[in-house]
Amino acid sequence: MTPDRAGQRDGADERLRAAAGVAWRLLVVGAAIAILVWIAIRLRTVVIPIILAVALTALLGPPTAWLRRKGLGRGPATTIVVLGSLVVLGGAITLMIQPALAGSGDLIASVQQGLARVPSALARVGVDQAMFEQLWSRAQQELQQSSGRLVSGAWSSAVAAGQVVIGIVLVAVLTVYFLHSGDRLVQWLLSLFPAASRSSLYSGGTTAYEVLGRYVRGVAIVGLIDAVGIGIFLIFLIDIQLAIPLIVLTFIGAFLPVIGAFLAGLLSALAALVTEGWVIALVVVGVTILVQQLESNLFAPRVYGRSLDLPSPVVLLVITIGSLLGGIAGAFLSTPIAAVVAALLRRSPAEEESAAPKVGAGGGGKVRAPSERGGPVEEAGGASRPAAPPDRG
């Protein structure tokens, strides 16, 4: 064998070994993810409330931190933020949710009538009406079967009702605790791991928390922009009893990227078609597209930053996978989880080093969470101390 051929063979063997190394690592990572997903699904009564509580903490954390920087202790700051949130929630229920529920019956009837008109309208433009009716009938059968399983299954039992109550209580209690003593919980969790790995764990957790916070705040702001922008036109174009539930659905749809905006716009167009005719329905479609384009190109990039740096096909895929694994809750939670995973994968070693707190000399120092003032934690000679003054709450 000539030296050239021997060198080529050695190079091929090296590439094969490298490919095999990558393959088994991917298999290990995939198996780990599958196990985690399986555990999360099995423990969804606990896992979903924890995720929701962390998301609410990321939303309410900034005002809590601001109050603590102004001199309030943990208890007063948390109490003010929680009570203020309850006031806002109560106002939203009184002003929007109750009228939306009252008008939901009319909206459902209008949408059903609008869908009944679609086959004849498609027939006028040359679309096979029989094929559409067959597809629509099949979709209705699937929906009825799913609804039947839902009603006859666990959700109709007292056990499921108890799970819902437990979930709500868990979300409320965990959110209050995270706002009050989340940094202490982080310190305790980090203390369970070897000192050498604490910096990386803290850096990853900080990245995930920041991305989740930007995502939740961004979705709320974008949903509010869409709801107000589209809602103003809906109030003037269609019956207000139909407009209010559509405004609420537009806001909720923002929490389901790509799909939510499309579904809310479709329902608005169908309601306008039945009550006001084709002209107003086309105006509603035009207004919806205009507002959503302005939001997507002007507001969303500034609001989200890189917290939702996901291509639309990826968003559609993760929502589909989330809905298959976790139903409605999985569909809504899949996008923020994917955004967090993408942010963690994009982290560079330099970013990880800069985001991580210092570890005491010789690995003996404790890794501390951010201080009450949100500043860094100062550590020297293996002893750690927060940069903020002592708690008063």
Descriptive notes:
The protein is mostly helical and 393 residues long. The chain has one domain. 81% of the residues lie in helices and 2% in strands. Strand 1 and strand 2 form a beta hairpin. 26% of the residues are buried.
Main traits of this protein?
393 residues; mainly alpha; two-stranded antiparallel ribbon; 11 helices; 2 strands
Protein topology:
Layout lengths: L2 H40 L1 H26 L4 H51 L4 H24 L5 H34 L3 H43 L2 H14 L5 H18 L1 H27 L7 H35 L2 H7 L21 E4 L2 E4 L7
Helix pairs in contact: 1-2, 2-3, 2-5, 2-6, 3-4, 3-5, 3-7, 3-8, 6-7, 6-9, 6-10, 6-11, 7-8, 8-9
| Helix/strand structural class | mainly alpha
Query: How many distinct helices?
Result: 11
Mean pLDDT across residues: 75
Count of all domains: 1
Percent of sequence in beta strands: under 5%
Q: Order of strands side by side in the largest beta sheet?
A: 1-2
Order of helices and strands: HHHHHHHHHHHEE
Main beta sheet strand tally, sense and closure: 2 strands, antiparallel
> What's the overall geometry?
globular
Low-confidence stretches: 149-155, 358-392
As a percent range, the share of helical residues equals over 70%
**How many beta-strand elements?**
2
Oligomer: single chain
Q: Kindly report how far apart the N and C termini lie.
A: 79 Å
Specify Rg, calculated over alpha carbons.
Answer: 26 Å
